[in-house]
Amino acid sequence: MSVAIGVRNLSRRYGAVQAADGVSFEIAAGEIFGLLGPNGAGKTTVVECILGLTEPDQGRIEICGIDARAQPRRARAKIGAVLQATGLQDKITPREALDAFAAFYPAPLQSDELLDRFGLREKQRAAYETLSGGQKQRLALALAFVGDPQVLVLDEPTARLDPQMRREVQDHIRVLKDARRAVLLTTHDMAEAEQLCDRIAVIAGGRIVAIGSPRALIAESGGTLEDAILRLTGRG
Amino acid sequence: MGALLHLTLLSLKLNFRNRMAILYGYLFPLIFLVAFWAIYRNDPVPLALHVGQLLTVTILGGACFGLPTTIVSERERGVWRRYRLLPARGWVFVVSILAARAVLLLTAGLLQLALAFAFGMPVPTHPFDLLLAFAATAAAFLAFGMVIAMLVDNVPAVQALGQCIFLPMLMIGGAAVRLESLPRWAQHASAFFPGRYAVEALQLSATGAGLSGAGFDLLALLLIAVAGGVAAAAMFRWDKALTPRRGWLLLALGMWAVVGVMAEARGRVALSAVQDTRDVGTAKDYVLPPKPAVAAPASWREVTDADMQKIAFDRLPPDEGIVSPVSRGDETPDPAILPQLDRIRDALPGWAPGTVSDPVQRARNLLAIAAVPDILQMEQVERFVPRLVFARLQAVIPPRDLPKILYWIALHPDAGSDAAIHRLGVFGLPDISGPTMPVRGRIMLYAFKLLGRLAGPLPNN
């Protein structure tokens, strides 16, 4: 198995709160890996550490064999990400954003290709502020793909989308699997996690409390995936 | 490098799509310029004496409002957090936004100068120095703009903090109100604001002797820029959720204090650079070469018409210029300065230095009343005082002697006492500090000019 993301014993404390506590997991190329847990469980901290947005107190993070803490820029070149709390300037157009982001990668995908792939061709010259929520999310995905990344980190990529848009985004994620990309996905949508993820890590109190396939987790709980998560996080 | 250029151009493009940014970045400086032009519409040389202030206000607005507003608003909406995910060093994003802002400031400054030229402002005496002074000022204010951007969490806070910096700098920092019209305490306070050094460096480059006389101003601006840059770098944050390291603010503001103390220590504050101390040459520059056979007069009583005919009155600075201006006889002063002129006129008869027994010293003392406002560039006042002095000279010195005495003073600017320049308070004129040689130079020029009116070559209309 070719490891795309390797996290070993990752810990991060914010004051009195241990946001991540000895978190370890590996994600293989071509695998969609879900990171699930209640709000405040530590998902965002783990994601931010992987992306280099937060410096962990300890632990090792490897992206495609690159030590992400020692060589953060090299590691970031392998990652595409969609985060919730990000945006773009009001007046920027999708094409300008794609062109600007492409300038940071040695072999970026063509903006035209991404505009077509994510259905933004008609809006390529529209100001960001005029795009719908779904269009903005598609643009965020397109930007994550600019560098033709080996690893995708998607933090609730379908949140606040209508059902049709959600399905479109999910289709894009499935395509990634076929292209042998590794995907780290966080979501509160249990159906989405069950349909998309090969494996799921359940996090609570900053610790990974279970890792397994959706089917295995469901089988263990004897109910639904939601039941499994609630039970594992002590809320069921 | 490609990414940096791409991002810089994109920043510029986005700025030009933002109506408010255009309003603040370009329209506001032009409005300020028009306001200055209207206020000082009677200046002999339109706007020339205010170009330092105008450019400073432009840079201040763009750097302390425009820059942090852009950064904070982008950070608020997560743009910078998104940038952080790109495989590039952080400085690329910072430099790109600073470079874009520098271009905006430069173009706004050029636009302002272009309009000023249209209003009749002369071409700057030292254009390259002006560019350097502009760069140093921009560096100082952009660095502080970055500090503001790192310090605050939202755009309203930028506006609030920006105003806290902007308004004092305008009112008592020398950026909008001329220092000589401020009380002494405010002049001292201004030494602790970078605006003062910006105005001085820019003004000296535009109408003065260039940056050669503004070494301290440049040093002050660069120190403030470096301290602000270091503080901003230490406080840098991609995400508004992160807490800024506010302690570094002390470094940025501390440098303002250090520069102020340095200025005070070297007498910088009293030696106001708003004085126009440019070299006006020596008496020889205004006298035709002597014929070998003719000896110079040994005293003022021996001065002859032939001596006076050797004076090259056409070499004197024009009456409409900045140096030693003289109003036309038919010119009406602005009502705003009438009280000051009345005060001078009323105080002249009782002014002790103007009644000393030695007629040469008496005339020299009276000429100092015209020379000091000229040095201090006291707007319109400086142009009308020479006429008051001229009238007084004609009243207290016999008509037969006055041309000879003026000739003598003009040819001997270093002779006699200049202590009278410290006794001008009765006229409402400020004390002048520092070397008195520039004042003596202006006394010389006015002696020549008034002599020219008596002797005929210069019109006394």
What is the terminal-to-terminal distance of chain A? 35 Å
Mean pLDDT of chain B: 86
- Which structural category fits the helices and strands of chain A? alpha/beta
Distance between the termini of chain B: 65 Å
Which residue ranges of chain B are poorly predicted, with pLDDT under 50 across at least 5 consecutive positions?
none
Q: Can you count the helices of chain B?
A: 17
Number of strands of chain B: 0
Structural class of chain B: mainly alpha
Detailed description of the structure:
The complex is a heterodimer of chains A (236) and B (461). By secondary structure, chain A is of the alpha/beta class. Chain A has 9 helices and 10 strands. In chain A, a hairpin with a 2-residue loop joins strand 9 and strand 10. In chain A, helix 3 packs across helix 4. Chain A is globular. The model of chain A has no long low-confidence stretch (mean pLDDT 90). Chain B is elongated, with a radius of gyration of 26 Å. Chain B is an all-alpha fold and 461 residues long. The longest helix of chain B has 29 residues. The mean pLDDT of chain B is 86. Classes of the chains: A alpha/beta (236), B mainly alpha (461). Chains A and B meet through helix 2 and helix 3 of A and helix 1 and helix 4 of B.
